Amino acid sequence: MEKNLVTSSSLNTRKLVVAGMLSAISIFLGLTGLGFIAIPPVKATIMHIPVIIGAIIEGPIVGAIIGLCFGLFSIYQAFTTPTPTSFIFWNPIIAILPRVLIGVVSYYIYAGMSKAVKKHINLAGIFATATVSFMLFIALKVFLPIQVDGILTAIVFILLSVVVIKFKHTNKEKVLSIGTASILGTLTNTALVLGLVYLIYADRFAKAINVSPEIAGKFIAGIGITNGIPEALISALVTIPVVIAILKIKKK
């Protein structure tokens, strides 16, 4: 009994240390500007990546705590370095709720994908591929001046599916699970923040950026595409190797 209490205490301490460390990294990225990567014509943020990493390696509560710190920092930044649209993040519902849910969604997507991959690795791979193919389809239509139709999307999807199914790697299961969790966790933040902006501040936001209120919805959706897709892809590329390395260390 005493041994179990000691083990439980050490686990709780470790979770708190991980939450504090990753929260500090997220805030550091924001304060230094390193949390933003220029991908013309947009800037993609990586400040949410510590939330996803913490959620996957230590569970949804740790992920939610890191997300809470990320959200609180957003409020602090909105007040201390205001811009014409800073009023958005003065609202805790927009600043905090989506960031907390990044961790929760990322963990449960990872856990669900891990189970699915073990039982039906090819089907899980196809699901992950469908997600990436859809994102690439949207990205091509937005970022490149070319015509992208359903046939091209289907070809890309089939080719990526074959690559994923034939892909041989000792960590294939983890790559699929972590990658899918990273992408959907990132899109959770993007969709919730922008969705709440539209529901609560559509007219005020339109005035702040000097666009007609009638097109505010389309403008917000455009931001979601141009920011959300690069952020989701960068998130997967960064999170996969980091989490795999941490999980290997934890096993030792």
Characterization of this structure:
The chain is mainly alpha-helical and 252 residues long. The protein has a single domain (2-251), classed as Arp2/3 complex 21 kDa subunit ARPC3. It is built from nine helices and two strands. It has a two-stranded antiparallel sheet with strand order 1-2. A hairpin with a 2-residue loop joins β1 and β2. α2 runs antiparallel to α3 and α5 (97-119) crosses α6. The chain is globular. The two termini are 25 Å apart.
SSE layout and pairing:
Layout: H1 2-32, E1 36-39, E2 42-45, H2 49-58, H3 60-80, H4 92-95, H5 97-119, H6 121-143, H7 150-166, H8 172-208, H9 216-251
Antiparallel strand pairs: 1-2
Helix pairs in contact: 1-2, 1-3, 2-3, 2-5, 2-8, 2-9, 3-5, 5-6, 5-8, 6-7, 6-8, 6-9, 8-9
Describe the structure concisely.
With 252 residues, the chain is mainly α.
Task: List the keywords.
252 residues, Arp2/3 complex 21 kDa subunit ARPC3, 3% strand, globular, mainly alpha, two-stranded antiparallel ribbon, 9 helices, 80% helix, 2 strands
